[in-house]
Amino acid sequence: MESAAKIIGDPAWMPHRLDMNGQRVQFLKIERERLGEGPFLAQFEPSGGDEAWLPFAALQQVPQSGGSLHFIFHTAFCRSTLLAKALDIPGHSVGYSEPGILNDIAAHGTAAHPLLPAVLALLTRPRGEGEVVFVKPSNHANSLISALMAARPDARGIMLSSQCDQFLGSIHRKGLPGRSWARRLYLEVQDYAPLNLGMDGRQVFAMSDLQVAGLAWLMNRRWFAMQMTRAEGRMRSLDAEDVKTRPAETIRKTLAFAGREITEEHARAIAKGAIFARDAKTGGAVPTQSGSHGKVVDEEIAKVAHWVSQIAASAGIPLTQPTPLL
């Protein structure tokens, strides 16, 4: 097995999962050319000699200085994976899509928070000289936003989300798993960013799947707005549609917000390249989606989106995200 010093010194050895009972961290060796193999780093599995475990005590050897780390926070189904992959630009930046270890820290609550400075310092190690690192946590780690930004006072955050009707359309396209996922998301966000709408458990249960999904979307957007208010200029909002329709400008301004410059020509070349020509999650062709889900579903989505907007108005929740990047 590699020594702790070698693992800590080599950015290819990425912190992967936590074993809280054993008080140790799993590392996987993931070379740069493999970063784009799948949609999420959390899905990587160890193979051969590419796995190592270090005790929590070894993390004390991790240097806290050096490198530049920034975040892409998102509300799910809003092209965040695409943006993370597009930011893998040798000589400028590298993008890490959903490291599993951040999910584990979020799942273990404040008991795991003392590990954040070392884990983030490990993720900050640049792959190339002068490169900045963009980490896209899973939306299931959004409870960590405040802790992540506090652990890295120099970090900037992109707050990426879609419009309510687009989110609901994504939930519908995923069928029963998507609708079940939306209900779990609602319960999850209620744990760390509760919104009291005066409904008891029976009333929540009686709502349709898309109504619950709409509330989860609203709570997520409210949580993002709260974080941006506290961040004192360290965060910018970004709409998913801009990633699709203004990709070159999105790349260039995201890098500029992180203190790095890229030419317009280079950004346009990335926007016209292979990353945007294929589905970021499957690697296949970008699916051509009709603007309609069928008359019945279209009407349901429109009614739920309107209902959510009325709830937002009565609760004083702005539907426009503050401090836009573009």
UniProtKB/TrEMBL annotation:
Gene3D superfamilies: P-loop containing nucleotide triphosphate hydrolases
Entries under InterPro entries matching the protein: P-loop_NTPase
Protein name: Uncharacterized protein
Organism in which the protein naturally occurs: Croceicoccus pelagius
